[in-house]
Design brief:
This is O-methyltransferase. It is built from 17 helices and nine strands. With 350 residues, it is α/β, with parallel strands linked by helices. It binds S-adenosylmethionine.
């Protein structure tokens, strides 16, 4: 007869984890981005296709330790990233997004938010909450984008690719939501490599577009915008800082996912659009509103990261409305165009 009898019920409660379990899990959740980053760095996801692969074979092919790989994957599997089958490790819909060739790949986005400097920044949250602002400039001696482009070139490349990955998810929805029938010229300010602008130009064949971004972003534009690209005849690529000047006269200026830095910079950039445009020109701020987002953990997490890197924020509806008005723009409305994006539509007044 056994000396020890189990008093545990292994069946999970339908009401979810207990507060103790939840808090313990949350406190160790940083294991997850660490494991995801490792998977990407060793290129594990790319090794698994439509059929499962035994762990020993994976470890051998990648030249990594099979036992540690198994432990790492055990953690990720508990979140639904990869699964174990009779034939070995297989993809789940979530782990498949880590493959570089997946049409919805988030490989670079995951690398971006798990960069070593991101791990260095998180402890600054305590100082930020005490002082009311981020301290990137003091820590690194320069504003975020200046430092990124000057000191972290590999990270810059990861960032630019990550923005294209995010744009792939949303740009059709943006292009379809815009009624540009009376519009001839469109400028995408801080448009990255121009994935969204290219999609908008494809959806609106009468339109001419200009991409404006910092030199490091436009050095390698979307293939469609290059001299030999399909949209070359209807597009221009301009290197410049919207904090100094926006050197384009256009009917519509778009700022997508850029005005989420320090509020003073946001007002400066918008005032430069007012200066560059004509009365009646439209200025669209496209952003993920933190108080109106179905993905509240994503929105609030990025909000905190922005606080620490650019002293920025994800805006509330009221907050972004106040900023556009401070810049001298007339607010026309705020419209949801994608679960993660709102368009704040404004006009340059007469
Ligand atoms: C979060 S990304 C968004 C990129 C793009 N709009 C998109 O949605 O994919 C912010 C962009 O702002 C650009 N940026 C930062 N400072 C800038 C400045 N002073 N002038 C113009 N662009 C700037 C960055 O290079 C980057 O491409």
């Amino acid at each position: 007869m056994a000396l020890v009898k189990s008093t545990l019920s292994v069946a999970g409660g339908s009401e979810g984890p207990s507060p103790i379990t939840l808090l313990r899990d949350l406190s160790l959740a940083s294991a997850v981005p660490a494991a995801l980053r490792t998977v990407l760095r060793i290129r594990l996801a790319d090794e698994i296709g439509d059929t499962p692969v035994p762990i020993d074979q994976l470890a051998k092919g990648l030249d990594v330790d099979a036992a540690v790989l198994e432990r790492l994957l055990r953690n990720l599997r508990s979140y639904g990233v990869f699964e174990e089958t009779a034939g070995g490790i297989a993809h789940t819909p979530t782990s498949r997004l880590l493959r570089e060739d997946d049409p919805h790949s988030l490989r670079n986005w995951v690398l971006w938010v798990t960069e070593p400097w991101v791990w260095e920044l998180w402890p600054d949250l305590e100082e930020a909450v005490r002082t009311g602002r981020g301290h990137f400039d003091e820590r690194y001696g320069a504003p975020f984008f200046t430092h990124l482009h000057r000191e972290w070139q590999e990270s810059t490349e990861v960032f630019n690719r990550s923005q294209t990955e995010l744009s792939r998810i949303t740009s059709d929805a943006i292009a379809e939501s815009l009624d540009l029938s009376g519009v001839k010229t469109f400028a995408d300010v801080g448009g990255g490599r121009g994935y969204t602008l290219s999609t908008i130009l494809e959806h609106h064949p009468h339109l001419h577009g200009t991409l404006v971004d910092l030199p490091a972003a436009v050095a390698n534009p979307d293939p469609r915008l290059r001299a030999d690209g399909a949209l070359a005849g209807r597009s221009r690529v301009v290197a410049g800082s919207c904090l100094e000047e926006i050197p384009v006269e256009a009917d519509v200026y778009q700022f997508k996912s850029i005005l989420e830095w320090d509020d003073e910079l946001t007002v400066t950039a918008l005032r430069n659009a007012v200066r560059a445009g004509r009365p009646g020109s439209r200025v669209l701020v496209i952003t993920n509103l933190v108080d109106d987002s179905p993905e509240i953990r994503y929105a609030t997490g990025i909000d905190l990261l922005f606080l620490l890197n650019t002293n920025g924020r994800r805006h509330t509806r009221a907050g972004v409305s106040a900023l556009v008005e401070r810049a001298g723009l007339r607010l026309e409305g705020v419209t949801a165009v994608h679960p993660l994006l709102h368009v704040v539509e404004t006009t340059i007044p007469g």
